[in-house]
Amino acid sequence: MTSVLFVCTGNTCRSPLAEAFTRRGAHLRGLELTVASAGTFAVEGAPATGHALRAAARRGADLSMHRSRPFDAESLAGVDLVVGLSPSHVRALPTGYGHEITTALATDFLPSDHVLHGTPVSDPHGGDEAAYEETARLLEECVAGILDDLSGDG
Predict the structure, then answer these.
(1) Containing domain of residue 33, as a range?
(2) N or C: which end of the chain has fewer CB within 10 A?
(3) Is 149 among the residues known to form the active site?
(4) What is the pLDDT of residues 119-141, one digit of tens each?
């Protein structure tokens, strides 16, 4: 079974949204994936932000049980793919995890002609509902590309 880890900064909005969308999308496609998220500067146990909870719920995904966790070597146990929400998240990959891990930026999974291909996913933290909606829409597109890639449809 493939294991995917999404990484952002605080693990309260972007990476939890990506995790929830991937979990939901994999279920709908019948893909067996292990999906998790973590943050490079996360405080252990913080809930998802209210705006992230609502953006996820509007898309049929549930973040109510999400609790943040820090990104460290332990979070890489068994992980096959680490998806960062910005280049700094990908560069934060710790050493000494003991197995080969593929790393990518979330927007690398957008079509190559997409205007946001290869760019960071904006951090909506502290922003309004519209900022979270914009981030959620982009993450949905990224996740569709990730799922296409993992299922061999991409």
Answers:
(1) 2-151
(2) N
(3) no
(4) 999 999 999 999 999 999 999 99
Strands (E), 30-108: 33-39, 81-84, 102-105
Active-site residue, from 8, 13, 24, 69: 8
* Number of domains within the chain: 1
> Is 8 one of the catalytic residues?
yes
Assign residue 12 the CATH number of its domain. 3.40.50.2300
**Average pLDDT value for the chain:** 92
pTM above 0.90, yes or no: yes
Is residue 123 among the annotated active site residues?
yes
- List the catalytic residue out of 80, 123, 148, 149: 123
Instruction: In whole angstroms, give the CA distance from residue 66 to residue 110.
Output: 26
